[in-house]
Amino acid sequence: MTDKKFEKSFNLKKVISEIIEPKIPVIFITISMLFIFYLVGLFSLFSSILFGSVFIAFLLAIQNPEQSYYFEETSGREDFGASKKLKDANYLGILSDGIKLLPDSIFIIDSNETIIAANKKGNQEFRTSDNLDTVVGLRLPNLIRSTPLSDCVKDIWLSKDSKKIEIILPGQIEKSYDIFLSKISSLVKDEFNIMILFRETTDLKKSINLRSDFIANASHELKTPIAVIKGIAETLDRYGADDLENSKIFLSKLLKESERAQSLIEDLLSLNQLEMRQHLLPDIKINLVSIIDDVFDALSDIAKKQKITLKRTIRKKRYLMLGDEKDIKQAFINLIENAIKYNRENGEVNISLEDNDKQILFIVEDSGLGIPQGDISRLTDRFYRVDVPTSMAVGGTGLGLAIVKNTVTRHNGTLEISSELGKGSSFTLIFNKF
After folding, report:
1. 191 touches 185 (CB < 8 A)
2. pLDDT > 90 fraction of the chain, expressed in percent and rounded
3. 0.70 exceeded by the pTM?
């Protein structure tokens, strides 16, 4: 009984000393002002007493969070433990509500570098498996293995309040981030948590690099057709009216070069867009059979004009994968068109589709002249041509296989090329089956 009386007395003394005493000057000033207002007639006696009572009660009700937390410590271990857990839950709940809808990935870590809160974007972007709903509870060094990030976190703990760094995370598709780190208050006195914001800059950095590459490549490759078009136009301007027969020949060349320039620009734009989307994995289910049917019908007339026999060997079943239908279709067109253009007269092009338990194989085989072994590794390089005159004669831009390679990479696939001089070539695209 004595202990309980002592505890109540102790807590009352704490309330008086920690809450009321610091506010006595404000209370005194308030009462003095109300008394003056009463004397000059601004307030009645009743209004002064009422206003003063309400204001003082409101003033005393406002507590410093540290004081409130301190009083709870004096109320016994069990009550303190329950109260602290409740406050921790409220604290994390407020943090989670504050960050959950932000477009960037955000983590909050404690002094053990354990993630105690994460927003929706962070959970989606950094979870290690589809079976993991949240990254909360994992240690940051185990989730993201980055020496610059670990060093930065240590600097924040030791001295700095905030910091910004750039990191590159390796993987199937390399990603770059601007990371902002800042100390934030913790419920525990003299302790802090760290808020980490991940802003992906993959697109931005890629667009900067691609823009410079695009300008350099485009200006170099467009010089030839533009120079030819200019020369023909000047010739027609000077002598076209005097020689109508040759003018028709020049006009035909002019049309051909303008078409070549147009194809080059279209391929450059396609390749640029593909590289910009390289880190975005397709998630739409597509059926390769229907795509091949469309491509086969579209290229049949071109094959007939070139005197090439176009065949397809496909079983009657569905070949499903996750992919971008437009990009896959363009890759198929590029491979089949190349097989037609660089074939021998009365040659053959065979299209086939095979599968196993995990993969789908799209195969294009031709009976052309073949490719030297030393050139095969460079076929997917931009503007690389095995035979430049032949390529230019058939309207090739040197970008077709680069587009195919980028499409395959974006779909986590593989491109295999085999060829034998005098017998032909085989191009195989391997994709993961859905």
Report:
1. no
2. 28
3. no
